[in-house]
Amino acid sequence: MDSNPASGKPCASENPPTRAETSGSRSAPLPEDREMVEARAQYLALRKEILPESDTQQRQARARHRLYTTVLDGNLTCCKLPSRVSRVLDLGSGIGCWAVDIARQHPEASVTCVDHHPVRLHDAPSNVTFHVADLNRDWPVEPNSLDLIHIRAMSDDVVSWPFILSQALQTLRPGGQLEVSEIRPRFWDFDGQFSVTDALPEGEQMSVELSAKMGVDLDPSANLPMWLDDAGFEKAAQRSEILPVGNWSKDAKLHQRATLYKDLLELSGWEGKSRQLFVSSGWDLPRYTALVNRMKESITQGGVRVYMTAVFTTCRRPADEQ
Ligand SMILES: C[S@@+](CC[C@H](N)C(=O)[O-])C[C@H]1O[C@@H](n2cnc3c(N)ncnc32)[C@H](O)[C@@H]1O
């Protein structure tokens, strides 16, 4: 359902035969071997060392929130919410930037934040509560109770999207809505200038291969429509928005996105997001840093109009179930 929003070409092939993609197909998933399970456990353990309340993570969380809401023209959701909302869940809430804003916008709603690290929410209105829980296990919410579930920037931490979606279906009330927002880990090029030797396709392909080997899907947006359908959701839709990488855009709106995305990439140190992936897969840091530096160079020096996409996937639990 997701498509290249511009006329440009994707950096790697459109449909790389990755485990991440095959695992979501309607055919039986590939069996997991011990090496894969161990590599994933090591990767998730490294991810768990990231503390949402550290200064860096707080700055990243704010930059991420600014970027996503700017892309949505100042809105907090891509889906249209009813004027009154009773119960909202934000999964993997971090320091609660989104949860606090939605709670202010909907003072009638009770907003629940879930994160596996205990987080003190600053300046949170009284209609926000925080729970420590693992979203890959049981969720601390009643079945059939939620009007909205919000999941943003969680692809690195989800073990099984089909599990998350089945939990979501059970905990939403009939007619309740789910929104999943992710930046796809794929580079696109407006002018089709990437060559196969370019560091950007190389880095992208490498992360696709490494994550597939450990059964982590860093690009769930590609499979979400199918998984949502399998889980029993209806009205699934996706909105793709361009995030220019580099300083090439003349359009004011795109230029603003580029600036905000650059802020986020700089705060996460560019390599921040994928370092755990490469390290868990046995790469040593110098080799990894060399690849990242070449990727940075090809953006700043290549004269290529590179962009990534933010994808907003929305759907709802059927209102009238038999
Ligand atoms: C990349 S941040 C995204 C935060 C927030 N959703 C946002 O858009 O700014 C990931 C958050 O998910 C939390 N997290 C990671 N794995 C988790 C898990 N298994 N269960 C609950 N929270 C988790 C992390 O502690 C972190 O706060």
TrEMBL record:
Organism whose genome encodes this protein: Apiospora rasikravindrae
Family note: Belongs to the methyltransferase superfamily. LaeA methyltransferase family.
Domain of life: Eukaryota
PANTHER family the record matches: 2-METHOXY-6-POLYPRENYL-1,4-BENZOQUINOL METHYLASE, MITOCHONDRIAL, METHYLTRANSFERASE
Listed name of the protein: Methyltransferase domain-containing protein
Region described as Disordered: spans on this chain: 1-35
